[in-house]
Write a sequence for this structure.
């Protein structure tokens, strides 16, 4: 074991090596206070913030006309294959649409299903000019359906105050647009009530 003098000499030599910028008087002053703080700086790693990928705003999408269908593409026959795909999608979703299937089960699945490609008909409306419009749904928004008719006309039909009928494999379902004002993505997670007041 070292004696007190040897220990003191060791500490002085160690401090000179550790703090070469400090003078001997300053080191002795620190030792009289019985506290020594060695110069040490930890290298703090700066965390890089992840950049969020920003999509287009609604205004930018309108300016770029992303959701507009060109006039030369507005033909009923072009979208018939889409309707066939939709029918197969619904059959798979409802496990074949068998005759003994329970109507409320199929209705519940149709309410949450994607309707792009479905053929719908406006059966009731507060605006008589909408009644009888039949066509394939090309786009569904929160408040409107965009429908292409057999006459190759693109119709924008509001959901509010309209009742739509949808037929597949003999099963007819009615959609009350006033209760259906949701985006397709939001509708898949919504719980619809089986009973309720139904009006236009």
């Amino acid at each position: 074991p070292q004696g007190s003098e040897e220990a003191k000499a060791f500490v002085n030599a160690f401090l000179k090596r550790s703090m070469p910028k400090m003078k001997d008087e300053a080191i002795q002053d620190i030792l009289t206070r019985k506290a020594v703080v060695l110069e040490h700086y930890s290298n703090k790693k700066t965390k890089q913030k992840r950049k969020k990928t920003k999509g287009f705003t609604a205004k930018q999408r309108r300016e770029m006309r992303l959701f507009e269908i060109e006039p030369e593409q507005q033909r009923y026959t072009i979208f018939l294959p889409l309707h066939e795909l939709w029918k197969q999608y619904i059959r798979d979703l409802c496990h074949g649409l068998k005759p003994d299937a329970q109507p409320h089960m199929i209705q519940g699945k149709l309410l949450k299903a994607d309707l792009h490609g479905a053929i719908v008909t406006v059966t009731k409306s507060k605006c008589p000019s909408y009644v009888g419009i039949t066509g394939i749904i090309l786009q569904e928004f929160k408040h409107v359906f965009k429908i292409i008719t057999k006459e190759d006309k693109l119709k924008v039909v509001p959901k509010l105050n309209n009742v739509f009928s949808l037929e597949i494999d003999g099963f007819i379902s009615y959609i009350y647009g006033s209760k259906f004002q949701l985006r397709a993505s939001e509708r898949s997670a919504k719980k619809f009530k089986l009973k309720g007041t139904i009006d236009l």
Observations:
- DSSP finds six helices and six strands in the chain.
